[in-house]
Structure formats: structure tokens, C-alpha cells
Amino acid sequence: MQNRITNLFGIEYPIIQAGMVWASGWRLASAVSNAGGLGLIGAGSMRPEILYEHIEKCQKATGKPFGVNVPMLYPEIDKIMSIIVESGVKIVFTSAGNPRTWTSYLKAKGITVVHVVSSVKFALKAQEAGVDAVVAEGFEAGGHNGRDETTTLVLVPAVKERINVPLIAAGGIGTGRAMLAAIVLGAEGVQVGSRFVASEEASSHQSFKQRVVEAGEGDTQLTLKELAPVRLLKNAFYEEVQLAYKKGATVDELKILLGKGRAKKGMFEGNLEMGELEIGQVAALIHDIKPASQIIAELITEFELAKSEIAIS
Fold it and tell me: Which residues pair with 65 in a beta bridge?
């Protein structure tokens, strides 16, 4: 399965594990990398010293390539980037910000840079900024999302038409069949998030993992677009948000309701009612918690089977 994505990262399979907050620590990243994909440490929920610790442990746990995902709205971004460079990390995925801000700096340090986008407009901006690849993430994705609500099915071919750098598809991809569909649409790799939340190595709380497994169709909703669009599992906190909307809450009132540490409370500490439970629509297709290596193996097996069935027909 060698292509521009596998060659760019030096990996066996064009599968990238998303750098999700409160889920993507060194255990998950190293497990995915050891299984032939590209593991990412999610810096968005880590203080600089914690990120340093995770990078160091990941380097000891795998001799294969791994990277760090950095939301550029992070308040201590300068420290985060310095740690990444000083630690010798060779791959960085950036998101939630202007790719021009850090791409040149990182590339000058010999780092491969990928930027996550939710529209053609921002894909073009990322390419102009000099990134090595782009992740096009559709509306189905978990966590923070694009305001335009463009689905992966539409976004991937739309971005493919306009850019020349390698394209990675994300949003709603948790099976080998979905991976094949993304490749057919023009992607050369896939970024998988939600499926890896329900892995043994994910650092998210066991109760949250189980809630993901139990989720059905329609159990997630994109909300809080006035702040930063986020897809959540419906729970008591979600219902409070909906009630606030009905009462005509202002942006400031929504900020107060969200408060601080809401995502940590839900996904890391396991408060399933009052925490923020970020997950993608594909949760409805996740039925078990298993090792990351097994998830990778099943994605590849199903991908190859689906490809052979198409060839037969």
C-alpha cells in the first residue's frame, strides 16, 4: 500500500491516528506506530511539561515514526513548539489556526508539517503556506469541527480538485470500507479518530470508551458553533446547552456554561453526564474496545476485502 502518504511519513499503511484531546497519549501513539500506522500525540490537552514526558516515553516505546498534533489556539504554543523541536519530533500536524504561523518555522527545522482543514478555502491556504500534506476533515468528525458542515463525501473530492500536495481524509472513517471509499474519492491516506478512542491504549476514561461503544445513530450532535463547533454525545450537559439556546443565550453566556475543564471532566475523568463527550458520528459503528494493533489489522483486512469485492463485480 505504498503511496505518497506512506512515503512521506515512512510508514507501512496510510492510516493516521488522530491526535485527540484526552485520548491520544504516548501509549496509543506508540501502539499505532508499532502496528504500521502513524501515531500522533495530542498536545491539545497537555501542558508543555506533560507533552515533553509523552514524547520521551513514545520515543522509548517505538522506533517507528510518530508525530504530535498541535491545535494552534493553544495558549502556550511557543513552549509547545520549542519542546517539539528540542525533542527531535519529525512530524507535526497543526489545526485550529493559520498554517502560515508555524509551517515555515517547523519546516526549517526539518519537520514534516500537515495541516487539518474543513474547507477548500483553507486547504488552499495550507498549501500556499508550504505544508507537506493536508487533512480534509468532514462534518461527521468528532471534536472540534468546521462551521460549513461539509461532509467528508463532498469535502475530499472538492479539496482533491484544487491541491497538489498529498491529501488525507478524515471524518466518519472507522472501517476498512470507509477507508476504501476515501481512497476512491481521491485521498491517499485516512485519519482515524473515534475508532481509536475505543482502544485499550487510549488515555480516555474507561466509562467514556464504553459510552462510545454503546452510542447509536443520532446520538451525537454538532453544537456550540458560536464558540468553536464541537460534536458531542448527548448527555445532561448537552441538554443544558440546548436549553441555553432556547433561552437565547449570548456568546458570553455560552462561554460561562462551557466553563473550563469540561472536556477533561467528561472524557478523561469519566463524568458522563456533566462532561463534554467529544466523538464522531462513526461511534454508531464502534461495537467494542480492543488493542490499537487489532484495529489497524482489521482496517487493512476489511479494506482489502472490500477492494476485492469491487474488483469481482
Answer: none
